[in-house]
């Protein structure tokens, strides 16, 4: 049994500071309630769109979605540094455009430097490198997510969660200061870089992210992450994965409650369909999103891609037939072609089966994140690369041919991709 590391502090909600926007009124949830089991057609209908918000910003909210009101008893999360706006302005060289690391729904993320002990800015290249996220001044929603981020990340510590160093709250300004993650997001590595991410790194990242989610789900006060996607998985220099962005995170159900009823937010293509349909949030919603990311890791395809032919735009819909134990559509046909034959055959089988289980239409049938970690852990050591099996079969064939008619042995260099390969049948590869 793996040693669990990480630390859970009892969540004390609320950060000092006020939001200037008027609070939206609570009202009854209008999302239709249906069974948690749904059919494929419904799934496709709900998944064929691509927005971060899954419902209109002013759509009905449940009381459980109220922002955490700043109260007189509010406690600033321990160990977080409080920066002034001037300090962060200096740390990022005046928020220089060439220090922008990325942009998300809530604003730009800048690279900056601070002194080792304290909040003072440091010269570029000295002290500690940080990532400074500056929220667009867009009122209640941004503030709500900023508070959630400080609340959760200020008190949850684990090697697979990004470290929040501190924050700034001054007038309208809301900023967050994180440890700098050298290799940026998984999204960048899977979809933007020209060099493909090696198979072993993909497994390492999936495992790290799974451990992060398992930690959240298994604490004394479970947390549902709600925004699991490739852009929220950040990578350090060793490709250790860390979850970032807790703006949408939610405390899990308490007592004998099976779910939390909440406004539906998240990202299309990742959100579990039963959650989109009912607003019922469980840790199994995160497991579904994990299944989607696992598919992205396996295929190198985005969860939603409008540039692909219809039928292939929604990754889950396209990939599902290959994931089931299907002789005519074996899972290796899903593998990111950029990997060529540099992947583990057994690894692909196991990852496909795991993705299939995580994406189960019945949320109760999905594995827990602990179970996911158990499946992924041994896959790190597999070295049954497809290319090795390919070489050995070609040389066997060559020897047989040479024996029978004296013609020279064929070489593997003619077949770069598994799709060109004479081994391109599920039977041969998985015998
Ligand atoms: N701590 C960090 N270290 C290095 N780069 C980071 C860090 N945090 C964020 N980034 C970069 O900034 C980008 C934008 O991050 P951000 O979380 O604001 O938005 P997003 O995840 O892309 O989208 P969304 O707003 O939907 O969450 C990331 O994709 C990543 O490349
Ligand atoms: Mg993000």
TrEMBL record:
Its EC number is 2.7.11.1. It is found in: Cell membrane. Keywords: ATP-binding, Cell membrane, Kinase, Membrane, Nucleotide-binding, Plant defense, Serine/threonine-protein kinase, Transferase. Residues 392-412 are annotated as: Disordered. One of its GO terms (molecular function) is protein serine/threonine kinase activity. GO terms for cellular component: plasma membrane. This is non-specific serine/threonine protein kinase. It comes from Quercus lobata (Valley oak).
């Amino acid at each position: 049994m793996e040693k669990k590391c990480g630390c859970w502090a009892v969540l004390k909600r609320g950060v000092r500071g006020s939001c200037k926007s008027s609070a939206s009124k609570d009202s009854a949830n209008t999302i239709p309630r249906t069974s948690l089991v749904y059919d494929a057609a419904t799934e496709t209908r709900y998944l064929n769109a691509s927005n971060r918000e899954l419902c209109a910003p002013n759509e009905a909210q449940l009381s459980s979605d109220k922002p955490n009101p700043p109260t007189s008893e509010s406690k600033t999360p321990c160990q977080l540094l409080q920066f002034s706006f001037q300090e962060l302005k200096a740390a990022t060289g005046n928020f220089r455009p060439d220090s922008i690391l990325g942009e998300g729904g809530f604003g730009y993320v800048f690279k900056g430097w601070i002194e080792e002990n304290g909040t003072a800015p440091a010269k570029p290249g000295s002290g500690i490198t940080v990532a400074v996220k500056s929220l667009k001044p867009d009122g209640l929603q941004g503030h709500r997510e900023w508070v959630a981020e400080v609340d959760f990340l200020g008190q949850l510590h684990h090697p697979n969660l990004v470290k929040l160093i501190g924050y700034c709250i001054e007038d309208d300004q809301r900023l967050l200061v994180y440890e700098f993650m050298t290799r940026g997001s998984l999204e960048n590595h899977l979809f933007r870089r020209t060099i493909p991410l090696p198979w072993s790194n993909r497994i390492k990242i999936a495992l790290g992210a799974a451990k992060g989610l398992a930690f959240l789900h298994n604490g004394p006060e479970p947390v549902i992450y709600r925004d699991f996607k490739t852009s929220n998985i950040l990578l350090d220099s060793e490709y250790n994965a860390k979850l970032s962005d807790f703006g949408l995170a939610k405390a899990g159900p308490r007592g004998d409650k099976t779910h939390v009823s909440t406004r539906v937010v998240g990202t299309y293509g990742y959100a579990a369909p039963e959650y989109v349909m009912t607003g019922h949030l469980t840790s199994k919603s995160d497991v579904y999103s994990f299944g989607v990311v696992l598919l992205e890791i396996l295929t190198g395809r985005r969860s939603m891609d409008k540039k692909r032919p219809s039928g292939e735009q929604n990754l889950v819909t396209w990939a599902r037939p290959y994931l089931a134990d299907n002789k005519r559509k074996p899972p290796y046909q899903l593998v990111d072609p950029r990997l060529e034959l540099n992947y583990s055959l057994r690894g692909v089988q196991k990852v496909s089966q795991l993705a299939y289980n995580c994406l189960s239409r019945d949320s109760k049938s999905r594995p827990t994140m602990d179970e996911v970690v158990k499946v992924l852990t041994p896959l790190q050591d597999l070295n049954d690369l497809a290319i090795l099996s390919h070489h050995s079969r070609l040389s066997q064939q060559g020897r047989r041919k040479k024996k029978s008619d004296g013609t020279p042995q064929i070489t593997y260099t003619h077949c770069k991709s598994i799709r060109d390969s004479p081994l391109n049948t599920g039977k041969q590869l998985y015998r």
